[in-house]
Amino acid sequence: MHDVQVLYGADLPTIKHGSGFAVDPTDPYCSQPWNMNVMPTLPGSLLRHLDRTVSGLIAPWLYVGMLFAAFCWHNEDNYLYSINYMHWGSTKTWYGVPGSSAEAFEAVMRASMPELFSYSPDLLYHITTMLSPRRLMVCLRKSDRALSFKHLR
What we know:
Blueprint: E1 8-13, H1 14-17, E2 61-65, E3 92-96, H2 102-112, H3 114-119, H4 133-139, E4 148-152
């Protein structure tokens, strides 16, 4: 038997480390709407009214993972949407629960680990909890769209 160590870097501020998205105003991609550095300031974005740069909200965060890296089930900060972009690497599987199934999702999580939720009722905000997507799919079977997954390249 061999020990396996999976390395994962999370919440790296792109202001310090860069993101792969243009920031130089002379670069034609700097003002493109799909540039994650620009998205929060686009017309129609509520975030454009913030008067400061909030790392992870206005300024994107960078995540670096390797084979077998995973990210815990969680609610996004302030229930805002999340957008991800994979710059490089093999196909990844992303799982998501739409807002319309949020209560059912939380009920399955609470039923699966009641002792953790009794200790920390806001556990899904801590980004520390994993549950097999297969188990979620079985428990949320009532709606075909209750749990979706995407293979991204």
